[in-house]
Write a structure and sequence with these properties.
This protein is of the alpha/beta class. The chain is 46% helix and 15% strand. The chain has a 5-stranded mixed beta sheet. Helix 2 packs across helix 6 and helix 3 (79-85) crosses helix 4.
């Protein structure tokens, strides 16, 4: 675990940052940041990449993290911002916002795969960070659970697309629904599959 190295150097307020929703063509991007107390504690033993956990386990860990974290924040990046600024720029900006919103200022920031230029704190982009850093793994769980809940709510507001099931990802069922129902305001117009439908 990468936190061991930082802790041995006297750095304890370590923020992990991760996102959920880069790939879907519908719904917002969600970015979470979290500072765990004693990141090497057994309390966090079940934390790993959110995609490798069951939905039930993610929900349990979401509650564990939010109740015991020193600080956490969750930020939503709208479809409009993604379409206007591009996915990568929106993702980096979301990371900045999530870090800035933490109630405690971190000493060091770990991100999953993407560096954050110009950040005041020292930070490191970690390859497969949600698998090798408990802090990034915790952030991935917060982002994933929050976004999944959003997509279930959006399914009620935009019925017929199956958002609660596929969470906005490009599936055969989603594509069929788009052709039948048309493109909604929560679909990312800058994504190739949506742009193609708009141009037909």
């Amino acid at each position: 675990m990468i936190e061991h190295t930082l802790l041995s150097a006297g750095i304890s307020r370590i923020a992990g940052v991760d996102e959920a929703g880069r790939g879907p063509c519908a719904g917002p991007l969600v970015v979470a940041a979290v500072i765990l107390p004693k990141p090497t504690s057994d309390l966090w033993g079940d934390i790993q990449d959110s995609k490798k956990l069951t939905e039930k386990k993610r929900e349990e860990l979401f509650d564990l993290i939010t109740k015991n974290a020193l600080a956490f924040s969750i930020k939503e990046i709208s479809v409009e911002e993604i379409d206007s600024n591009g996915l990568h720029k929106s993702n980096i900006e979301g990371m900045r916002r999530a870090i800035s919103a933490l109630q405690i200022k971190p000493e060091y920031v770990l991100t999953d795969g993407y560096a954050i230029p110009g950040l005041a704190q020292p930070n490191l982009a970690v390859w497969k960070g949600d698998q090798v850093s408990v802090s990034v793994g915790a952030a991935s769980i917060l982002a994933k659970v929050h976004r999944d809940r959003l997509m279930v709510d959006l399914d009620l507001r935009y019925p017929g697309y199956g958002l609660a099931g596929h969470k906005g990802y490009i599936t055969a069922a989603h594509t069929a629904a788009l052709k039948k129902l048309g493109i909604s305001e929560i679909h990312r117009k800058s994504f190739a599959n949506i742009a193609e439908l708009l141009n037909n």
